[in-house]
From TrEMBL:
Organism: Bactrocera dorsalis (Oriental fruit fly)
Official protein name in the record: Trypsin alpha
Similarity field: Belongs to the peptidase S1 family.
Gene3D superfamilies given in the database record: Trypsin-like serine proteases (2.40.10.10)
Recorded coiled-coil stretches: none
């Protein structure tokens, strides 16, 4: 994915940062400003892989259902190219590597920007829960402004790098409500930040390309799914996540029919 270099002064960043070039799905993942961790701290985390390479993140919902982002699967990839690795701190080894039986992208994804960026995966065989593989409950309500949430995933740690860290990374971020994120406080505007979205913003820290589909967790529940943003950790541009609370009914209903 093309990355545009942007030079910002401290003064410009504090007041009104220039707008980076384009709304971009966060496809090939990085945690910016985070630290390495182990899967036992994030046992719901999975790596969604295409042809043996890490592609997106996701979360364990049940023994055979994974929650991820719609844009990770919206090109309708062949099931034979897809795998899910669960239960490992490393995307490329350990844990359990599972084949995928089916996936379902939200029916409304693509009809209105990045709204409804949610999908479910059904594994070909059920996971066995352990200290390194556990499901995470879905949020019933969106977290309040300034609540600290944690985002985890694999991917490059510097914008523009092509090297994936093999070990799981995490970062703590502050939640920004839909209304606040869409306001003039930040740079997106109400035409881009829509229903089914929630944001998170901490200066110098972010989820980014390839962390897509991965979990944002607060209060022990899944509150967001990494979705999109302008660049990575750009001043005045929060990371944008699918709001799990607003999509909860779709997840619950689809999980039993997929």
């Amino acid at each position: 994915m093309l990355k545009i270099a942007i030079v910002l002064s401290v003064f410009a960043c504090a007041l009104a940062a220039p707008k980076p070039a384009g709304l971009q799905p966060l496809l090939d993942g990085r945690i910016v400003g985070g630290a390495a961790t182990t899967i036992s701290s994030f046992p719901w985390q999975i790596s969604l892989q295409r042809s043996g390479s890490h592609s997106c993140g996701g979360s364990v919902y049940s023994e055979n259902i994974i929650v991820t982002a719609a844009h990770c699967l919206s090109d309708n990839p062949s099931l034979t190219t897809l795998r899910v690795r669960a239960g490992s701190s490393y995307w490329n080894s350990g844990g359990k590597l599972s084949e995928i039986a089916a996936f379902k992208v939200h029916e409304l994804y693509g009809s209105n920007g990045m709204a409804h960026d949610i999908a479910l995966i059904r594994l070909a065989s059920p996971l066995t829960f352990s200290s390194t593989i556990k499901p995470i409950a879905l949020a019933e309500t969106a977290p309040a402004d300034d609540v600290v949430a944690v985002v985890s995933g694999w991917g490059t740690k510097l914008s523009g790098s092509q090297t994936l860290p093999t070990q799981l990374q995490y970062v703590n971020l502050e939640v920004v409500s839909l209304e606040k994120c869409a306001s003039s406080i930040y740079g997106y505007g109400s035409q881009n930040v829509l229903e089914t979205m929630i944001c998170a913003y901490t200066v110098g820290k972010d989820a980014c390309q390839g962390d897509s589909g991965g979990p944002m967790v607060a209060g022990g529940v899944l509150v967001g799914v990494v979705s999109w943003g302008y660049g990575c950790a750009y001043p005045n541009y929060p990371g944008v996540y699918s709001d799990v609370a607003s999509l909860r009914v779709w997840i619950e209903n689809t999980a039993v029919t997929i």
